[in-house]
Design goal:
The chain has 189 residues and is α/β, with parallel strands linked by helices. It contains six helices and five strands.
């Protein structure tokens, strides 16, 4: 990991599990214009970045696949906002689909949106590497947590667009049928 010196410090609410998330990774501090950073980036096949954190820290990268994972994309009213997984869950409506039906919205305990974005990014990088090996150019990949979160709502959006308002259903799932929960409860949902 190369961490720019100008990036905002890690927030406790975002990186509570940083030791687990970054296990085995080494961090370097780099500055735009640093020749050592430029040499490292020149030799890279893939560069993973987040322009939300510091859009100016990454110098021009030639012949590398660049995967930029952001909270809300690179254009639009929320572009560049360094939002947490929980904030994206609230923003896109995931929090409104979880929790008890008579209770407040609840975010999912794990950073599932960040995990989904990582999976989408990894799949896109593998596809871009394959395309480049077949003679194609290096590609720029953009993955937004917000887009991944909206995709996670696919079981709720049809209900909404069908004219009904989706409601919070605890740990039940509409595709499992009435009264079915995962994991199976000992005494009802």
């Amino acid at each position: 990991m190369i961490e720019p010196t100008t990036a905002a410090p890690a927030r406790d609410d975002k990186w509570a599990q940083r030791d687990l998330t970054a296990a085995g990774k080494l961090s370097l501090v780099g500055r735009a214009g640093d020749p050592a950073l430029a040499r490292l980036l020149t030799a890279a096949d893939v560069v993973l970045t987040s322009s939300d954190l510091d859009a100016t820290a990454l110098p021009a990268v030639r012949d590398a696949i660049v995967c930029d994972i952001t909270a809300c994309g690179t254009d639009g009213p929320l572009a560049g906002q360094p939002l947490t997984d929980a904030e994206v869950q609230a923003l896109c409506g995931i929090a409104d689909t979880t929790g008890a039906s008579d209770g407040p919205p609840v975010t999912i305990g794990a950073p599932v949106v960040e995990m989904a974005a990582a999976l989408y990014g990894a799949a896109a990088v593998v596809a871009a590497l394959r395309a480049r090996r077949a003679g194609g150019p290096a590609q720029d990949i953009a993955v937004a947590l917000y887009d991944c979160a909206i995709h996670a709502l696919t079981t709720f959006l049809p209900t909404y667009f069908g004219g009904r308002v989706p409601t919070r259903i605890g740990n039940a799932h509409p595709l499992l049928g009435p009264g079915m929960c995962f994991p199976p409860p000992t005494a009802g949902c």
